[in-house]
């Protein structure tokens, strides 16, 4: 069973169980075929990338409708079926395909709205971390330095150097972005020394994990020392 982010495993098991109960039986009806079909359905639902229980329910509806559409098409293609039965099976398959497409469109709309809300909250998180959330333009070439004139009087005290500018979002490394946007997930990776055994969020790239554990970025080093405690 693939975990579903942001919901407990008990709820995820219930959602997957409802999906398996809604599937049509396999043609041969053997336990092995049934297990393979259920695994296929659960993997298909997980690959729709639901992030919460509401999105998982819609993903289950889409996958179930797809399986019933395929089952109706297989019934229509059986040898010996009369034309009226073939017509009904094809009509049923078309209806289930429309339901599956409608559920997938609903899921994509829900995911887009959730992503929009998350993106709207990210600039505030970036600013709290000392970063600017905007694209990076390439720096202009520096003008050639002019020779300094010879001093004619005691030089005045040099002005205090300005603090270095804050990094922009595009200049951050993948791990710096990860600890800024997902501090709880980064803390879980650090506490586990890699991917946690019970993963409740999409796994980051291997390069991000490597940089989190052994990177020399000042932001990543500071996060390793003062990372937030994990939520219960």
Low-confidence stretches: 161-165
Amount of beta strand:
under 5%
Task: Give helix and strand order, one letter per element, not per position.
Answer: HHHHHHHH
SS summary, helix count: 8
Structural class: mainly alpha
Give the integer mean of the pLDDT values.
Answer: 80
Count of the separate structural domains: 2
Helix content: 55-70%
Q: Mind telling me the C-alpha Rg?
A: 28 Å
End-to-end separation: 22 Å
Number of strands: 0
Shape, please? elongated
Largest sheet: number of strands, sense, barrel closure:
none
Describe this structure in words.
The protein is an all-alpha fold and 232 residues long. The protein folds into 2 domains: 109 residues, no CATH class; 58 residues, no CATH class. Helix content is 58%, strand content 0%. The two termini are 22 Å apart. The radius of gyration is 28 Å and the shape is elongated.
Write a brief structural summary.
This protein has 232 residues and is mostly helical.
């Amino acid at each position: 069973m693939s975990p579903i982010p942001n919901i407990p495993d008990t709820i995820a098991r219930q959602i997957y169980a409802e999906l398996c109960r809604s599937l049509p039986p396999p043609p041969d009806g053997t336990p092995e075929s049934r297990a393979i079909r259920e695994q296929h359905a659960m993997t298909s639902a997980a690959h729709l990338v639901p992030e919460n229980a509401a999105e998982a329910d819609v993903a289950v509806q889409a996958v179930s409708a797809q399986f019933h559409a395929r089952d109706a098409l297989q019934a229509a293609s059986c040898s010996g079926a009369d034309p009226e039965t073939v017509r009904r099976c094809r009509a049923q398959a078309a209806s289930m395909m429309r339901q599956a497409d409608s559920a997938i469109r609903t899921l994509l709309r829900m995911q887009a709205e959730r992503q929009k809300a998350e993106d709207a909250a990210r600039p505030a998180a970036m600013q709290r971390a000392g970063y600017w959330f905007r694209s990076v333009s390439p720096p202009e070439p520096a003008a050639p330095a002019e020779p300094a004139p010879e001093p004619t009087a005691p030089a005045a005290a040099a002005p205090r150097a300005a603090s270095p500018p804050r990094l922009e979002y595009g200049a951050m490394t993948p791990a710096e972005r990860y600890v800024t946007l997902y501090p709880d997930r980064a803390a879980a990776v650090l506490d586990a020394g890699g991917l946690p055994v019970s993963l409740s969020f999409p796994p980051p790239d291997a390069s991000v994990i490597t940089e989190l554990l052994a990177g020399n970025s000042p932001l990543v080093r500071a996060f390793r020392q003062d990372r937030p405690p994990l939520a219960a």
